[in-house]
Design a protein that fits this description.
Strand content: over 45%
Structural class: mainly beta
CATH class: Mainly Beta
Distance between the termini: 15 Å
Oligomer: single chain
Shape: elongated
Number of helices: 0
């Protein structure tokens, strides 16, 4: 008789207004210019980035990783900011255009073959050829494991 997969969800949530040692911002600004009282991070210069670190519990207690998602609340603004998204150094998206006119949640499926047991990272970098800026507010990483 085949064993049923019983999924277990592990979720990591990040908010730009809450200090978190698992998030690193490089060459960024913090502003609330368009969201008074609700600050967000702004990437303006080529090479500026946000790095998220998270732990993948797969292979513990016989569990396997069966799904992974990266959800992010962000905006490329009307100046057409574009970003590169990498998982553990491998490119997931190059020159990606986030929502343009306001913040919006988007969900990206992460290729599970790019994730390993232990600490992993997602890096969102302002694209070298971006004409505009990038705004970031919140993110969630969801991992599903099962036996």
């Amino acid at each position: 008789m085949a064993e049923n997969i019983i999924p277990k969800t592990v979720e990591y949530s990040f908010n730009c207004n809450t200090p978190d040692s698992n998030v690193k911002y490089y060459a960024h600004e913090t502003t609330d210019y368009y969201r008074k009282g609700n600050p967000y991070k702004l990437l303006r210069n080529s090479g500026s980035y946000i790095r998220f670190k998270f732990y993948n519990p797969a292979n513990e207690n016989g569990n396997s990783l069966i799904g992974a998602k990266f959800k992010v609340n962000h905006c490329g603004t009307t100046s057409d900011g574009k970003v590169d998204i990498r998982i553990n150094g491998d490119e997931l998206h190059h020159g990606y255009a986030p929502p343009r006119y306001n913040f919006g949640w988007e969900e990206f499926c992460l290729p599970i073959e790019k994730l390993h047991h232990g600490v992993n990272e997602i890096k969102v970098t302002l694209n070298d050829h971006s004409f505009g800026v990038y705004w970031y507010s919140d993110a969630t990483i969801i991992l599903e494991t099962g036996k």
